[in-house]
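Notes from the 1:1 (GR / supervisor)

We went over the backlog. Supervisor wanted to see one worked example end to end before approving the batch request, so GR pasted a single chain during the call. The sequence is below; no edits were made to it. Supervisor asked that the structure be written out right there so they could see what the output format looks like.
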Amino acid sequence: MTKSQSSIRQVRYVRSKRRLYLDGTESKDWTQGWSVHRYTSSGFFVPLEVAEGISLSSLRRALAAAADHGTVHGESRGIEWPDLPVDSGSLLIADATENVFDGKHSPIHPASLVLVDDELRLRIDVELTNRSIDAQSVGVAIRPMLSRAKASLAHCSVAESAGFAGGNYPWAIDVNLNLRGRTVGDALELAQSIEALLKVLDGGRLGDSAAWDLLEAGQVAALFGQPESEWLEVKSKDWDLATEPGKIEMAQDISRFANGDVSAVLVVGLGSKKVDGVDTVHCGPPSSFTSRDAHRHHQIIDQRVYPSVVGLRVAIFQKPDGGDVLAFRIPQQPAELKPFLVHGAVVGPKVEGAFISIVRRRGEHSITVSPQVLHAQIAAGRAFLHSTGAQPPIITSCETPT
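Structure output shown during the call:
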């Protein structure tokens, strides 16, 4: 999420004190600046809440000045990482607030900013468990996310001793960044999204469960670049719930997944575009939702879809651009509850409140349930009731939902 220009802080290197200072603080006591990490000496060590607002452009200039002055010497990881570019200085992030920050013992964030050949890169350290993952598969997985951030993959490698004695596989990933108007916080958000997506890759193919976990973890951006499929659909605009057609359309969208064969996720507030002929998820236009919206959507679905969709979840999540998405998770439904019916249908320009509509999902498309199929299911149900001696229920009235 790109911060407003007013919240971006400039940083510079002060030679006489061999420290980094935020603009306006270098005249204070020398302890207000940030020194190199006391153990590694490879980079300046800064608490997260301070680092987040730092301008990437000013950070590149500051690290270059420190490298020229000899304050930082970069880090070489030796024979373990023979192909990893050696940086000439870095900004290490402490996973600690400023008031508890300790220059020796604060934990180091897995993402850092490194200077390589006078260019600032985002370096991400992540451990994976799947030995079949290679650099090519990592590149393919994160390329859409990088493209959206106007970034590119500079380097990707795994430690040579990875997996020794059954251990994990440490990866180092370098990303070339677009510095203009961006902050360290923006870079760290990108790193978090990349790590979340790689963890999904590590555990197998992205599916509805993993996608929902990513949404709940605040990683909406991890869906960017994913193809729409039988379990994933996005809508750039909300339904017009002030109208009957809008209510019916939403109910049909939910019921078609409920009538399908897999669990699914539907996200409102994201867009899709063709990439190599495939509808692919991207950020979409600005959108905003509240918890009241989630409740209203859920309530209308309960009123319009029969029987009730088991385990339906409706939630609001924040987008990387500061807006929101409205997400629906529709678990795979028990076969005995199908078909799910929608009360109401739109026939040409008319809304027929006494009609029912039945739709289901097949692949990326929707199909209607034919009268023949519906009749066969009703006949089969009646035959079963007859064989058991039970009587079918008698419906005495049918009220149109509001």
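Supervisor's comment: The helical segments are 48-51, 56-69, 135-148, 184-203, 208-216, 244-258, 291-304, 371-388.
Batch request approved.
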